[in-house]
Amino acid sequence: MAEETTKKPAVKKTTAKKATTAKKTATTAAKKSTATSKKATTTTKKAPAAKKTTATAKKTATTAVKKPATKKATPKAEKVVEEVVVENVEATVVEKETIKEETVTVSEPAVFDWDLFESDEHDSYSKEERTKLDDMYDGTLTQIQEKSLIKGSVIAITKKEVVININYKSEGVVPKNEFRYNPDLTIGDEVDLYIESMEDKTGQLVVSHRTARTHLAWIRVNDVLETGEIITGFVKCRTKGGLIVDVFGIEAFLPGSQIDVKPIRDYDQFVGKNMEFKVVKINLEFKNVVVSHKALIEAEIEEQKKQIMSGLEKGQVLEGIVKNITSYGVFIDLGGVDGLIHITDLSWGRVNHPEEIVQLDEKIKVVILDFDDNKKRIALGLKQLSEHPWDGLKTDLNIGDKVKGNVVVIADYGAFIEIAPGVEGLVHVSEMSWSQHLRTANDFLKVGDEVEAVVLTLDKEERKMSLGIKQLIPDPWENIESKYPVQSKHNSKVRNFTNFGVFVELEEGIDGLIHISDLSWDKKFKHPSEFCAVGDELEVVVLELDKENRRLSLGYKQLEENPWDVYESLFATDSVHEGTVVKLKDKAGIVSLPYGVEAYCPAKHMKKEDGSFVIAEEKNQFKILEFNKDGKKILVSHTKVWGEVEAKKAASNSNKTSKAVKNINDSSEKTTLGDLDALAALKEKMEKGK
Prior knowledge:
Strand order of the largest sheet: 3-2-1-4-5
Number of domains: 7
């Protein structure tokens, strides 16, 4: 039986594998009779006795593949089938008949052309069918990329994770806490995902729902900014200067000025509420979004402003509500349009802060002072609704009258005194004291002080008044001539210095000047501060008095006798005195003589007998060359001292020589040998004298 099977035609090996349970029957069947072979196989399964034959047929089939198939193999195949039927003696008659019928229907196997099947030219489908099949196939796959947004469907929900099908080779797994905002998430819901990475270390796809929401939110916010669409957001909390709003999952900033057209003082009233907004600004660099609720109603407000502005007139009285109070004024809401009352227009009197006059949300009447249609600015006034205080001022108030009032403002140049509500007068700092010292008003007055003053000038038309305080006391210069006559001596106090002298105060309102040249007879000062200090008390002598110009010239050195009168006799010309060089300048020296007098010695007169020059701190004899009493100058010389001694010696020697020569001439006729000896002795004597 095995030999007969060997002679059978070869069949495709793959066909035998697909029919493993019926290998014995498949060996005899061709590819084109596949249906017939399957029936035979089913019949064979019911015959347990055929197992051995099946194993034998399997080996035979493997060998038979290598042999070419021929038509003569058909009768042998029929015999094999008949033998299988005979071996299954336990099978029923129905099974035998079925096998015989199937065996009869086995068709002759055809040769399969694999080259034709694998060639591109051969296709059992038309072009349209092939395109349709390709589209169906592509529809079952999803092309994804990293850093991209996709949609997926929830297929499973666990305690910690949500599994999402994205039509890819692996599902996306997202932590369940990313869906905390959606507690109603169920299987089958469609969600957005962001591809973080195609795979991690374990090969798992990494996706994020939170990141996808953020990206989609930014896309949505940018679209809303371009289109101007009105969106709804949830006010989460309050922050400095405004509110934090949740818009599409993004925290946006709502400035306090953009909440409403009216100033909002309590931001907490909006926390936890949903509000409508418009996106007005996006900062991509810092990921900031600014929204506005005010922008929704600005258009309506602008229309109201136009209507109100068109009906405004100067001098018109309107009722408004105090909207905001600042240090410089008050903003009034006139029903959609804001006007400003400047602090100077709140009251005829002086106002330190607007809160002294009005309160927030208070209804008041105001008058329109001016308005600008283009800038939408309205200037309002409150004090203009009442009579001006100057109009109610006493008619009998005249210059020279005394008035009382309170100090309301102090400046460096003076103080303002309010003598009646809204009526003020200025007391200049020069009118506060008869003293000529430079002072400020703060040295005399303080805000709130009650003072009495004299009206100096009064202009009711210009509504100006100047006052004086020093006029309440007598002018000390009125009897100055009798109180401070010339050459009288007085005590004074040093007030301040200038480069040319010292200002001293004799009494309140009377000052005098001591010129720098009147400080000392013999010393010279570069600045008066070298002589005294501020606050020192000095005794002075009145030198000159000018009542008209209120000037008083004083002296200090005049308290003593002029020492130069004595110096004139002490330091007479050509007299020699011992002195010390206290200072050198360009080889010239300042010499200190007795009694503290200083003299000047030029450089050429500093030369000593040995050819050197007098140095500083060296004591020597100096000769007075010149004495100037008026200029207080003394000129001295050291060279003249030793130069005159030499001159005297030279003159003495000259006289002696001339006498000796005369004696010789007189006795020339009587000259003897003894005379010659006398001449030699005289010569020797003269040489010793030199």
